[in-house]
Design brief:
This protein is 25% helix and 29% strand. With 556 residues, it is α/β, with parallel strands linked by helices. Helix 5 packs parallel to helix 12.
């Protein structure tokens, strides 16, 4: 039993009458009865033996009646039906504060890319520690609602940093490079002034150079109403509560690999019976952002009847102008997805421990076999509230950082979804997407290892998603007032955002059967938006198709 987990075991059983101390000296017979002197010594001893279980007789200690003790950490087996456990607990580790040059709090994409860059820059063994609540090493979270739901991918296929064609960083990789990676561990205290943290097992760690906050974001939850309880109040739906999706087998907030695995298992259970027309299973998707649209497409492809609810007047409202959104909406409708727009979900509905649908804000009730919720996320900053400067506002409060991702405290950095970077090109903005996590984690690690104060001046957003057979990529800024659309989703769609005769943003979408030019198109548009390529508005309005624009503005 690892010492960190041992404390939790002791806490769990310390109040039970069947558990008591049998010895506090490893040289003594562990089956001997504890004396009053031993009990007094216990208060100052740091190495003690604990036994949990029932004794057959309080006066009998013979081996034949109590069983044989297995030395060290082990179990106390008896010949009778009763049994217990006995083990040594060393409390020295609680008082000792382990030190590392750098500590990363969080185990998502940003942490994985930071670890990759630390190793690339030549960090020495035992100088970096990562603490994660996840069950797996850092992985590409954005894949969960994309290829993972529609292919046979496994966790090993999208560990960081395979996305950039680097070897997968599995457990062995971290061990090989001398990185202390502690999974399934929550940090409960963080003293950012002294760069000291404490985990849930009361163990303290200290960073001698810097702490990197990479706690990511958590999904926004919907209230849940119990139908039976609400009927007692004349169906007014007064009983609401925020409940973890783990409490319901048919409610999914896809944020971790376990969420995606559970959803995939459920979707496949119907997909395998798709030729059985006796029952059509329904999936209700709430939210029309990346997660909602990608999950809706995956469920429809696996034979589910899908209804998608969008609170906004059109899908992807934060990025797509109405004209573009309507193209994608028609594409989804043609493939059997029902869209309900302009109304949000008031509450989810449960009955006998299952989610059975939702009640919309206009009073309509929608019934469904499963519900997927993707209405956004909020930065996970509770642990650091009041300790660093937070940028309030839209979409959610996040930790304010400068151009080098440093917070308001020296030696404390914030990367990924949890940060609100102050960049010269986009002012202060919250960038909750994968590229920001990859970039910010790598950049901070490189900066810390090179010991430079140089700030990164321009960050260039890049987004991507897939609905059915259409894959799209966006680069730059979508706030420019002039939007010009070329082509359609049947072949290639190109959208340009123009400001002061310069390309500020660009979106390209193509059916996968026209994917041969994908990489070159992306590279061209990323460079054009990054360097804000100058264009003549006269030419912009005369050109008609995406191919004409690429030929005219971006000749080979």
């Amino acid at each position: 039993i690892k010492s960190e987990y041992l404390i939790a075991v002791l806490d769990k059983f310390s109040s039970k009458k069947s558990g008591h101390i049998v010895c506090n000296d490893p040289t003594h017979n562990p089956l001997k009865r504890t004396s009053s002197r031993a009990s007094n010594d216990f208060k100052s001893s740091t190495k003690r033996l604990f036994f949990f279980g029932k004794r057959k007789s309080s006066h009998s200690h013979s081996t034949s009646k109590q069983g044989n003790f297995l030395s060290g950490t082990g179990s106390l087996k008896k010949k009778s039906s009763t049994a217990g456990m006995a083990f040594w607990a060393d409390f020295d580790h609680l008082d000792k504060v382990d030190e590392y040059d750098f500590i990363i709090i969080g185990g998502g994409v940003a942490a994985g890319y930071a670890a990759h860059e630390f190793v690339k820059q030549g960090i020495q063994p035992n100088k970096l520690a990562i603490f994660s609540t996840e069950n797996y090493p850092p992985y590409e979270r954005s894949i969960l609602t994309k290829d993972f739901l529609t292919s046979s991918m496994k966790i090993q296929d999208f560990l960081t940093c395979k996305y950039v064609n680097e070897p997968a960083q599995d457990i062995d990789w971290y061990h090989k490079n001398g990185i202390f990676l502690q999974l399934k561990t929550k940090i409960i205290e963080a003293d950012l002034n002294t760069l000291t943290i404490k985990n849930v097992h009361q163990k303290k760690y200290k960073a001698t150079k810097a702490i990197i906050i990479a706690t990511g974001s958590v999904p926004i939850k919907l209230p849940i109403t119990n139908i039976l309880l609400s009927k007692k109040f004349n169906n007014t739906f007064v009983s609401t509560d925020y409940v973890d999706s783990d409490d319901f087998w048919d409610l999914f907030y896809v944020r971790k690999i376990e969420d995606a695995e559970n959803l995939l298992t459920k979707l496949d259970s119907v997909y395998k019976e798709k030729f059985n027309e006796e029952k059509l299973y329904s999936c209700l998707v709430i939210g029309s952002g990346y997660i909602g649209l990608e999950c809706a497409a995956a469920a429809s492809m696996k034979g589910w009847l899908v209804t998608l609810v969008s609170k906004e007047e059109h899908i992807m409202s934060e990025l797509f102008p109405k004209e573009i959104a309507e193209m994608f909406e028609n594409y989804l409708i043609e493939r059997g997805i029902t869209l309900i727009k302009g109304v949000g979900c008031h509450t989810l509905l449960s009955d006998c421990g299952s989610i059975v649908g939702c009640r919309l804000e206009d009073g309509r009730i929608l019934h469904s076999d499963i519900v997927v919720v993707g209405i956004g996320s909020t930065p996970n900053i509770d642990l650091f509230s009041g300790k660093v400067t937070v940028q309030e506002g839209v979409p959610n409060p996040a930790i304010l950082v400068d151009g080098s991702f440093q917070t308001s405290l020296p030696g404390v950095f914030a990367v990924g979804d949890v940060s609100a970077p102050l960049f010269r090109s986009y002012d202060c903005s919250q960038l909750q997407h994968a590229k920001n996590a990859r970039f910010s984690g790598s950049y901070v690690a490189k900066r810390l290892m090179n010991n430079t104060d140089q700030e990164f001046e321009i960050y260039h957003p890049a987004l991507e998603s897939t609905f059915f057979d259409v894959r799209w990529n966006f680069f730059g800024d979508s706030s420019a007032p002039v939007v010009k659309v070329y082509g359609n989703l049947d072949s290639k769609l190109l959208v340009l955002w123009i400001w002061e005769a310069k390309i500020q943003g660009a979106l390209v979408a193509r059916d996968e059967k026209f994917m041969s030019s994908k990489n070159s198109d992306n590279e061209i548009l990323e460079n054009a938006t990054k360097h804000q390529k100058s264009v003549a508005l006269k030419d912009i309005y005369e050109l008609q198709t995406a191919e004409e624009v690429f030929f005219f503005f971006f000749p080979l």
